[in-house]
Design a protein that fits this description.
Rossmann fold; 8-stranded mixed sheet; about 35% helix; disordered N terminus; binds S-adenosylmethionine
Amino acid sequence: MNQNAHEPASLPVPAADALDASAALAAHIREAISQAGGWLPFDRYMELALYTPALGYYSGGARKFGRRAEDGSDFVTAPELSPLFAQTLARALAQALTASGTSRLIEFGAGTGRLAAGILSALDALGIPLQSYAIVELSGELRERQRATIDALGGALASRVTWLDALPDHFEGVVIGNEVLDAMPIALYARTAGVWRARGVSVDEAGAFRFDDRPLDAPEGQTGKEDAALLAEIDTQIDPGGDYIAETHSAAAAFTRTVCSMLVRGAAFFIDYGFPRGEYYHPQRSQGTLMCHYRHRAHGDPFLYPGLQDITAHVEFTRIAEAGVETGADLLGYTSQARFLMNAGITEALGEIDPNDVARFLPAANAVQKLMSEAEMGELFKVIAFSRGIDGAIDAFARGDRSHTL
Ligand SMILES: C[S@@+](CC[C@H](N)C(=O)[O-])C[C@H]1O[C@@H](n2cnc3c(N)ncnc32)[C@H](O)[C@@H]1O
């Protein structure tokens, strides 16, 4: 972990205007730290770095999604890899819509809009009527990109898409979020010589951000009941004398509670990388899972180029499951992305492409390999879904459901 040398030599240096924007965001965060008395909890730092209007990574002009560093992007997500992802996911969504007798979708954090466009087209091809496809997007810049992608669909399909400024109190339909939970701010805790401290951010004499750990009984270090219980649980599982860094996910849990409370009838699907609690807080992950992405390089320094790089952590799916079930929703299923896509028919979807059409077939087969392979996204990524008032099971969870591991 590189805390203070904020320009690792191995990473490409941003353009001058991007560096100016990053400097403006850093000044804004320094001001927030100063106003808070010299220290901010890490989740607040992460929120400012990602979502400060106009300057945060997701709210500002960074390119973000793409296949290669040369195009100025930082990472690639499943919908960007292949249209077969949206097409296959749409089969599971179609079943959830039919089983709940609903015809509305909400997508959270729609990125470039490719998943939305792919799902709309696939549902149309499956003959599933869709009344509306609403997108909840925090970033104005991404909304514009999504609008352009959706407009390219043209006509009747594009006209079903709307952008929501606020969530409805009640929703009947199906919710989807790909790689949204991992983009929610996490709290950090560091255990040194058997004592947990809240890990936050302060500013050193040179004006650089640095990690700064505060006692849990200090006014600024105080933590919620759920986090405190989790830290105590980690002590019972992992040698309490050893050093350990843990992140906790109360923002993602609160988000899940909100979505599941809103859901009167239907289902909510979230796809992301992560593990159930027993695997998550593991001796081998003693440095936590905080990760930054800049130009397709992953590294561990959240203070590098604020606003120009993604900051993320793996999702702790047990906390997500607990949050959803607390609202009275049913856990519909939890499995690996590979299992989910296999059950939902990705192989059949690939089979519909003529293997002699090499220009189409080869990239599709490569993408499916990436989505499914244990060594790539197939095993690390999971799908968790909640439901209310659904009649019958969903084929995508029929084989290999791992709800019992949560
Ligand atoms: C890693 S990107 C994934 C984008 C897209 N789903 C994809 O797969 O390409 C994370 C997205 O989640 C969005 N996001 C984070 N928190 C959110 C929230 N509370 N509500 C809606 N979107 C959110 C971000 O703005 C961003 O668009």
